[in-house]
Structures are given as structure tokens and as C-alpha cells.
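Action item from last week, closing it out:
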Amino acid sequence: MNLPQDDLELFDKLDRDQLYAYIAMQIRNIWRVDGLYFLGIEKRRGMEEATDVDAECWAYMGRVEAKELKTFLKVDQPDPAQTLELLRHTSWAVSHALKSHQVRADGAAVFTVDQCRTQMIRVGKGLEEHPCRRVREGYLQAFAQECNPELTLDCVSCPPDRTRNDVYCEWIIRYQNG
């Protein structure tokens, strides 16, 4: 870890609960910035251009996060279950309080966002639901491919193609021939 000694000493003063709260606060801050830049582009250039920029950024992040998490957790060519475990360590997954995940009997891994904080905030502000499938799918495909080129990602439900009213989005990671 390449943190300055001053910072390590600062963190050492926090107890475990404070450290968890600090990490959660920083994840929320990252997502605030993401939302603010998106809203800024949307206001100036429209939803389409904001989504284009967002999709480019998140596809890049999918590759980077997968690569870093594979190194951090010492996993080489993860199967769908291991990829799901890596995904659960991302700021995107951690940022969702109401989510679920499972590994099915066929070996496929499923990640579901039951309530999407971003969508709920947008709707609460009187904005239209964000058609986030292109952004999230690009991110998750890049993540899965970087984890293991033999994996594929399927979208079950995600705005604007929300097929389930009980969840915002659901994704399945499996082997390409599985």
C-alpha cells in the first residue's frame, strides 16, 4: 500500500465501525461526483450525450476495476462465481444497499439491484428514469471480459428495458458456451 505514513496514522485512530463508515462515505462521494458530472452534461447537452460520455467512462472502469481486484484478491482466471465475488467488491456493487446475488445450480452467477439509489434520486427530483442499460452493460461486460475472456454477460432487466417491476436491474455472468 502506498499511503503516506501520516494517512496511515490517521486511519489507525479509527475503530472498525468508523473505518467502515468512512469507506462507505467515500464511496457515496464518488457516486455523488458521478451523478453531478452526468447531470451537468445532461443539462448542457442532453441525455444522449451524457449517456455516451458515461458509457465510455464506465467501460474503461470495468476493465480497470477487474484488473485491480484480480490482483488485490489474488484471482487469475475467475469462473462466474469468483467473478461475482470480485464484482461485489466494486464501488458500484457496494453503493447499492438493496441488492442480492447468487450462484445458480448451473454455475451462472446472478447480481440483482433491487432498488437503485441513482434512479430513486432522479425520480425523486422529478427527472425521468435514466436509461442506464447501455452504461451498465458496457461496464459489466468489460468487467467480466477482463476477469476471464471465456465469460459473457446477459441482461435480464435494466432501464429502459426493465422486464421486472420488482428489481431495477439483473445481470447473469456465465461461460460463453454455458
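Closing note: Residues 133 and 161 are 7 Å apart (CA to CA).
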